[in-house]
Amino acid sequence: MNWEQEVLKRRNEIVEDIQGFLKINSVLDEETAGPGRPFGKGIQECLTALLNKGEESGFTVKNLDGYAGHIEWGKGEEIIGVLCHIDVVPPGDGWTSDPFAAEIRDGRIYARGALDDKGPTMAAFHALKIVKDSGLPLSKRIRMIIGTDEESDWRCVEHYFKHEEMPSAGFAPDADFPIIYAEKGLIDAALKIETDQAETGADLVLEIFRSGRRLNMVPDDAEAVLAGAAPSGFEESFARFVKEKRAEGRILQEGGRLTLTVYGKSAHAMEPNNGVNAGLILAEFLHTQSLDRA
């Protein structure tokens, strides 16, 4: 079989399916969570759409309480797992088009999830459909396992494998083509600092520091709220520091509070060099100032 030729025959259908899939906002939204949608309405809509497409195409499908699902074809005792996920990180700022419009420009689809992992997920679906339509004999079951919480806490696969068997072998068509064969380690850490603000005697006291939307994203904005008034030269020093770091900043003095905001550039944590970490920039600037004892 000429696989490339088979894909080109279906080119328009594949592109349309990928665009439609990407237009569903599947960012974790626990405010709309409920029975059958543990991670919010958008993710539930996305999972349902994919499983319905699988059922319409004649595959065996299963929904595991909205936590995950699978689409399967073939016969045999063993399973080859194709591990995908349909949740995406928040789009962040700086887009030149709507991150859920899935516009095509210069032969590329631009959308959140185009590479990680909704585009590859739909590509895997059509690859399995080509196998099915060709009548290719299979000695194993090929099962697309569809996660819904990969970008956060992996609660999807924890739930899934409480109820389903583990594949004999598998791979994850996640991100770059043709293959990623290794990945760096990951540490999630929480830092807590306690201060005694009443005895600091400092002109400015740090009250709030906020940055980041997900643990696996380079934060594209950060905010610090300080009690007190900006000393002489403070604003000029802040503007100069932020500019040197290839970021942008803003200062707002209001009601005895000074709010500093830094705008950087978002990137996936696996490629932090492609981003500008607003949180680190703001923390570094604050470290140069005479604040409370922290």
Walk me through the structure.
The chain is an alpha+beta fold and 294 residues long. The model has no long low-confidence stretch (mean pLDDT 91). The strands form 4 sheets. Strands 1-2-6-3-7 form a 5-stranded mixed sheet, sandwiched between helices. It has a 4-stranded antiparallel sheet with strand order 8-10-12-11, with helices on one face. Strands 4-5 form a two-stranded antiparallel sheet. It has 7 helices and 13 strands. It has helices at residues 3-9, 11-22, 41-56, 118-134, 155-163, 234-244, 278-287; strands at residues 60-64, 68-73, 79-85, 103-105, 108-110, 141-147, 169-171, 205-211, 217-218, 221-227, 248-254, 257-263, 267-268. 28% of the residues lie in helices and 22% in strands. A hairpin with a 2-residue loop joins strand 11 (248-254) and strand 12. The chain folds into 2 domains: 8-171, Aminopeptidase (3-Layer(aba) Sandwich); 197-287, Alpha-Beta Plaits.
Write the layout of secondary structure elements.
Elements: H1 3-9, H2 11-22, H3 41-56, E1 60-64, E2 68-73, E3 79-85, E4 103-105, E5 108-110, H4 118-134, E6 141-147, H5 155-163, E7 169-171, E8 205-211, E9 217-218, E10 221-227, H6 234-244, E11 248-254, E12 257-263, E13 267-268, H7 278-287
Parallel strand pairs: 3-6, 3-7
Antiparallel strand pairs: 1-2, 2-6, 4-5, 8-10, 9-13, 10-12, 11-12
Radius of gyration, in angstroms, nearest whole number: 24 Å
What share of the residues does DSSP label as strand, in percent? 15-25%
Total number of helices = 7
Q: Look at the helices and sheets and give the structural class.
A: alpha+beta
The stretches of 5 or more residues where confidence is low (pLDDT under 50) are none
CATH topology of the largest domain: Aminopeptidase
Subunit arrangement of the protein? single chain
Question: How many E strands?
Answer: 13
The largest beta-sheet arranges its strands as 1-2-6-3-7
> Termini, distance in Å?
66 Å
CATH uppermost class of the largest domain: Alpha Beta
